[in-house]
Design a protein that fits this description.
The structure holds four protein chains of four kinds. Chain A is 25% helix and 29% strand. Chain A has helices at residues 3-12, 34-43, 101-112, 142-149; strands at residues 16-21, 24-29, 48-57, 62-70, 77-85, 90-92, 115-117. The longest helix of chain A is centred in the last third of the chain and has 12 residues, at 101-112. Chain D has a three-stranded antiparallel beta sheet with strand order 1-2-3, covered by helices on one side. Chain D has a three-stranded antiparallel beta sheet with strand order 6-7-8. A two-stranded antiparallel sheet of chain D has the order 4-5.
């Protein structure tokens, strides 16, 4: 399947698909039924899940969970995006589709506080005894944190 | 809390150590064993100094597997909070006399990670350090030079940071607690955190 | 007199063993394309270790380390050095084999007392390895006993005196090959160093040893090198006409072991025991049959 | 009390002394990098594994949001210390994709050369490390000594031994010094002449065969589905390579075949590394021969004030360990809005650890890690 056919196919399934450049498309999905779309993509040979990452769109009050999917046969990379509200960051887990997703989801959970329903183990992976906001959220001020806990000083303490 | 600086005090006095101390200091300086613990990316320049080009075994410096056997603790690069915990535990497991070398700018003042939420800025606040090497990352020549300098310091009896740790334990312990024994969130923004609980999920 | 002899012989064995270790490190370094430490590096290491503070876990640990060193020094006293020995004995091989086990057992007591799982795995591997090399070693020794009609090392060594062609290495070459492989395992050199494997069990038995305990451990290793190479010289290389000749032969044997150590990776413990039970044992049995019939 | 056999087995199972925790890392000679597994052991066999990561977590992704587009170039190579250049190139490629910049031909070739040199240094560590984890320290010393020769060439070209920061958005920082390419060619010939030594010491060693064959097998389908990439993917029989599938830099103009192995076990992975090492030498030689003349940097104005137009892109590069991917979101400011890094080691280091390590003996853990080429900082970030 080449890129134009794929775009047509995805648009007919009710997804907003858009070409970024050669071999790379962007897809925006709804949080309620994105799993069926991912399932479909996996069935048409989009078998490589490269990464799951979060983006904090604080101005729009939304989180975005981004799935990086690639097809070894079509040579097309899909940036598959799902938006969820910031107040209630809950999304379904895709552990059943890809096994490695459980670790990527743990990572996103740790750094954004997004809860993945269906992922059995969301315990912290990298940070120990973390009590503050998840650190990659835009409203977490890392410089202030470092100043209080580690005593870091901007410009070596000079104003 | 006042910190006693042994190196300065020692230099002011004459070298009035007993002969036996001088002899042991010589043997210690000629056989420094370093701990095989790569705390950060500075560890990448350790294999070159151990292999043919710089061959540090000429000076009797060899890597050792466990803290019990080692004399030198190398802090090779940035120390994240988790690593700092393990460094302190490792340091306290080492028998005396023991020495610490801190590698790279990131152990001195945070380096390029100065504003990171998970790296310690000045390692010297948590454990005593004998020598620091600046640079990111220090060249093997710098490391070799530092090792020779440490050998000389051990020989002359100047390298006494481990006694500083015992004498000023209160200071170090307070700093360590500030880093590890946190019971409440540091920033006020933590109250914004959304905690997911199962009952809420099942209502939908 | 005997007491002074015992002390002198012990010091000699320790010194020779330590210098051998230093030379071994130098040779390994050259094989690694490095310059290497000075040949007396191990002596500096021992002095440093003895001057350090050390952690003990309990009384058994103290006792075990001393027992290991004492056991091996005791073994050493029975090994004739170019016909000389500390006191009059017939240096029976069976006694030596019996005493050699004390070293390993002492080490086992000391390190298991520390309670570190790495040390426990390491020492259980060392004892398993002992199980592996004792069998071919005993068969080789049996061959020597049969051919000399005596279990005394002095007699075995004396029977090879005179010309280089009297050495047992020419009379029983298969036995020598089997012994060379077994010696590699006895000295804990690769490919049979599964017990100290740093990448697997973080230096095994030595994990919890600090300062003086590690120093005692190194001394034990030095004496064991002396004993094992000494046995080899007495068994197959004519025992030496004078102590210097003896030590040079020992050094040659040790360096062969060091060179093999540097070109082989290590076997897993079960693979090592299997290998020892098949190849050296098989070769030794063939040698035994050749001698018996 | 009545103890039937069922109760007794239950007691034995609940006995806390039947299993014990063994900390394999972070302070362990067999561990490459500051990373660890907590092994739940029964005797010398592993029963279960818990991952003890995060010792190298520096919050890169947060820090990158706080720094300018070009300032970030100092951060990105630190994500993988063994193989730093793919990070720089991937980051630059993602920025160029958003800005829609085409880089000059010569810069493409220079990027190819730095990438392949970086691959050489990384594979030398991996090959040496795989040997050292089996106790063969000689090969470690040899490869490290040879790696220094490549680092010298790096130093001449870029000024840095380990971190180079040679690639910048729009091309590379500067042209090659006089005589560099000739000397590089000589170095490559020297490295090639060392290969028979490595082979006879490591890859033809019967004990290595005995230790590695059949250890930690990965089938063809599993490798594709679990996100493995790079040599690990190809060692399982998948002829997939980003350099062929989505060519970047000058790879479309160089001739090379995708090397694959069939077995998918530890030995195949180690051999794959060695064959890719040989291929990298060949690629550098080709690139030197085909090197065009011209500019090395597209004009992007003052790089310190670089502003990237709004957009997003995912760029990926085949590093020595697998796919490095950077997903960058720009909002048209002086700083990136979000940079997300995909490190190649996570599927092997986390997922395959939970699959392979249970029922494995403690003996094999270090070499298992060595052949997978796990580099802890790229998942810790």
């Amino acid at each position: 399947m080449n890129i134009t056919e794929l775009l047509k196919d995805l648009n007919s399934r009710g997804l907003e698909a858009e070409k970024i450049c050669d071999g790379e498309i962007k897809v925006i999905a709804n949080k309620d039924n994105f799993i069926t779309h991912l399932h479909y993509l996996q069935s048409i040979n989009y078998e490589h899940l490269a990464n799951i990452n979060g983006v904090d769109y604080i101005d729009e009050n939304e989180f975005e969970v981004v799935y990086q999917i690639y097809s070894y046969t079509d040579k097309i990379h899909i940036i598959f995006k799902v938006r969820i509200p910031r107040e209630k960051p809950v999304i379904q887990s895709i552990v059943d589709l890809w096994e490695q997703a459980q670790f990527y989801e743990r990572e996103v959970h740790e750094f954004y506080g997004i809860h993945f329903e269906g992922n059995k183990d969301l315990s912290p992976l990298f940070l120990e005894d973390w009590m503050d906001l998840p650190p990659l959220r835009k409203d977490f001020d890392t410089e202030r944190f470092s100043e209080i806990v580690m005593g870091s000083m901007r410009n070596g303490g000079k104003k | 809390m006042q910190i006693i600086n042994y190196a300065d005090e020692e230099r002011r006095q004459e070298d009035n150590r007993k002969l036996w101390d001088k002899v042991t200091a010589y043997f210690r300086s000629r056989s420094l064993w370093m701990l095989h613990y790569c705390t950060g990316c500075g560890a990448m320049e350790l294999p070159p100094i151990m292999t043919s080009r710089w061959d540090i075994e000429r000076f009797g410096i060899v890597p050792m597997a466990t803290p019990r056997q080692a004399d030198i603790l190398l802090l090779t690069g940035y120390a994240s909070t988790n690593t700092m915990k393990r460094i302190i535990r490792t340091y306290e497991q080492m028998p005396e006399p023991k020495w610490v070398i801190a590698f790279g700018s990131c152990t001195v003042n945070g380096g390029m990670y100065w504003d990171s939420y998970n790296t310690v800025n000045n390692v010297g606040e948590y454990i005593p350090i004998d020598i620091t090497i600046a640079g990111c990352m220090p060249r093997p020549e710098a490391i070799l030079d530092t090792m020779v300098k440490l050998m000389n310091m051990v020989k002359s009896g100047d390298a006494k940071a481990f006694q500083k740790y015992k004498d000023n334990y209160g200071y170090y312990k307070a700093n360590q607690d500030k880093l590890f024994a946190r019971t409440a969130p540091v920033l006020e923004s933590a109250s914004l955190k959304y905690v997911h609980n199962e009952t809420e999920g099942s209502e939908q | 007199m005997v007491v002074i002899n015992i002390i002198l012989y012990s010091l000699f064995a320790i010194l020779v063993g330590l210098i051998f270790m230093g030379i071994g490190r130098k040779v390994s370094a050259r094989m690694h394309l490095r310059y290497g430490p000075p040949f007396y590096q191990s002596i500096l290491d021992i002095f440093k270790l003895m001057s350090r503070k050390s952690f003990t876990h309990n009384f058994v640990m103290d006792l075990g380390m001393v027992m290991a060193l004492a056991g091996l020094l005791g073994t050493m006293l029975y090994v004739p050095i170019a016909g000389h020995s500390a006191f009059i004995s017939n240096s029976n091989i069976i006694v030596i084999m019996y005493l050699m086990a004390i070293g390993s057992l002492g080490m086992a007591m000391a390190v298991t007392a520390s309670g570190n799982p790495n040390a426990t795995i390491g020492i259980s591997r060392a004892l398993t390895m002992m199980l592996g090399y004792e069998i071919p070693f005993f068969i080789i020794v049996l061959g020597l006993i049969i051919s000399n009609n005596s279990s005394s090392i002095s007699v075995i060594a004396a029977s090879q005196a005179g010309s280089i062609w009297n050495w047992n290495i020419w009379h029983m070459p298969l036995g020598y090959i089997a012994m060379e492989i077994t010696l590699q395992a006895m000295m804990g050199e690769k490919p049979f160093d599964a017990m100290i494997a740093p990448a697997e069990v973080a230096s095994g038995p030595m994990v919890e040893l600090s300062g003086k305990y590690l120093g005692l451990g190194l001394l034990t290793h030095a004496v064991s090198i002396f004993v094992e190479t000494g046995l080899m010289v007495n068994f197959f290389f004519g025992g030496g006409s004078n102590p210097i000749d003896f030590v040079i032969k020992q050094l040659g044997i040790y360096l062969i072991a060091v060179i093999f150590d540097n070109i082989f990776p290590r076997y897993k413990i079960e693979q090592a025991v299997k290998f020892l039970w098949i190849f050296p044992t098989g070769i030794a049995v063939v040698q035994l049959l050749l001698l018996a019939f | 009390m009545n103890f039937d056999s069922y109760t007794l087995t239950k007691i034995a199972k609940n006995d806390k002394y039947t299993t014990y925790d063994l900390f394999f890392g972070p302070n362990h000679p067999g561990m490459n990098g500051n990373f660890g597994y907590v092994l739940d052991m029964v005797g010398t066999e592993i029963n279960n594994v818990r991952i003890n990561a995060g010792q190298l977590h520096r919050g890169f992704e947060k820090l990158m949001e706080r720094r300018g587009w070009v300032q970030n170039l100092t951060l990105v190579p630190r994500i993988c210390v063994m193989d730093p250049d793919p990070n720089e190139v991937t980051y630059c490629m993602a920025v160029e994709k958003i800005m829609n910049v085409e880089i000059p031909e010569r810069a493409k070739y220079l990027r190819t050369i730095t990438l392949e040199m970086s691959r050489l240094t990384s594979l030398l560590i991996s090959i040496g490390g795989a040997g050292a984890s089996l106790g063969l320290y000689t090969i470690m010393h040899w490869t490290m000594a040879d790696r220094d020769k490549v680092l010298d060439m790096f130093e001449w070209l870029t000024g840095g031994r380990v971190y180079h920061i040679y690639n910048i958005p729009g091309g590379v920082r500067r042209d090659t010094p006089k005589g560099f390419l000739e000397k590089l060619y000589e170095t490559m010939e020297y490295l090639e002449s060392r290969l028979p030594d490595y082979d006879s010491l490591l890859f033809e060693n019967p004990i290595i065969h005995k230790r590695l064959k059949g250890l930690g097998p990965v089938t063809k389908e599993e490798a594709r589905k679990t996100g493995l990439s790079g040599p690990n993917l190809r060692a399982s029989g998948n002829a997939l390579d980003i350099r062929k599938d989505a060519p970047y830099a000058a790879y479309s103009e160089l001739e090379f075949d995708i090397i694959t192995q069939e077995e998918g076990d530890a030995f195949a992975r180690a051999l794959q590394m060695r064959l890719e090492y040989e291929q990298a030498i060949d690629l550098i030689k080709q690139a030197i021969k085909k090197m065009p003349e011209g500019d090395v940097h597209a004009n992007l104005g003052n790089l310190g004030m670089l502003k990237v137009n709004p957009g997003e892109a995912y760029a990926k590069v085949e590093s020595s360990k697998g796919e490095f991917g950077y997903y960058i979101v720009s909002k048209g400011e002086k700083k990136p809005y979000r940079v997300s890094v995909r490190g190649p080691s996570l599927p092997a280091g986390f997922l395959w650890a939970t699959k392979h390590l249970p029922k494995m003996k403690i003996d094999d853990v270090a070499v298992w890690m060595g052949t997978f080429g796990i580099c802890a900082p790229d998942f810790d970030k």
